[in-house]
Specification:
single chain; 248 residues; 4-stranded mixed beta sheet; 8 helices; 24% helix
Length: 248
């Protein structure tokens, strides 16, 4: 496996799924408090996708799926699918201020999806070709998702490329279609002599958060604060300005 920027550019292209180009803009609403902490700590906080964090039983559907093997019930994918962390963005600049699990004061930021993915993918990860993905989310009926990911043919999800596992994290119920989500995905793999993940901070109940190293310089192009914010955001605003962002 090669570790250079030229090879990385090729991987970036091959690991982006759906209609996302170098010119595609995305927006995300952050909790101002937690986003400020990420900026100061040079990290991107990602969340483990599952019922515990999203309150949706079909978020990460393989994680808790039941496989029937010779009459015995197993959760074959529980540990395997608990290594993934995501961050959600939207193709909609007008997405509701209540989205993305924000609490307290809020800030909306605008970036190019490609730049986000480029800065997230780190060639210090020995397996960066396999551990980073970005996709435009597909939406389907809940019954269709349940049927596909509770299938007895569990071996079909264990092909060597791992793309079947990645695909399972890039599909959501139709009830979320208004979000028009673009999802960043990271597979936390500290084993196999891969020391890079140990630079991250894994924290929270069931380790649901991963603070992945990230350089925000010149990534954020525009920001705006929620008009209902109750606290002074001058500190965060100073950092955003220093990082090259402009206020909307």
């Amino acid at each position: 496996m090669e570790f250079d920027e030229r090879t990385k550019k090729q991987v970036l292209t091959s690991n982006i799924y759906g209609d996302v180009t170098e010119d595609t803009y995305v927006w995300r609403i952050f909790s101002a408090q937690y986003f400020f902490e990420d900026l100061k700590n040079d990290c991107m906080t990602m969340v483990m996708p599952c019922y515990d964090t999203q309150n949706d039983v079909l978020e990460n559907p393989l994680r808790d799926s039941i496989s029937d093997i010779e009459g015995q019930k197993y959760k074959l994918f529980l540990n395997m699918m608990s290594h993934y962390y995501t961050q959600s963005w939207s193709l909609r600049p007008d997405i509701s201020w209540n989205h993305f699990g924000t609490v307290g004061d809020k800030v909306r930021v605008k970036c190019k999806a490609y730049n986000l993915f480029d800065n997230l993918m780190n060639i210090s990860d020995r397996f960066y070709m396999l551990n980073y993905h970005m996709a435009k989310i597909k939406y389907d009926h809940a019954s269709s998702i349940q049927q596909k990911y509770n299938d007895k043919d569990y071996e079909s999800f264990l092909e060597s490329s791992g793309l079947a596992l990645v695909e399972s994290l890039m599909i959501l119920q139709n009830k979320w279609v208004q979000e028009e989500e673009v999802r960043l995905l990271y597979d936390y793999q500290p084993q196999h002599n891969n020391t890079f993940p140990f630079t991250h901070k894994i924290h929270g109940n069931i380790n649901q958060f991963c603070s992945h190293v990230f350089d925000w310089q010149d990534v954020i192009e525009e920001y705006e604060f929620d008009s209902s914010n109750s606290n002074d955001q001058s500190g965060l605003e100073s950092w955003l300005t220093a990082y090259g962002a402009k206020k909307k």
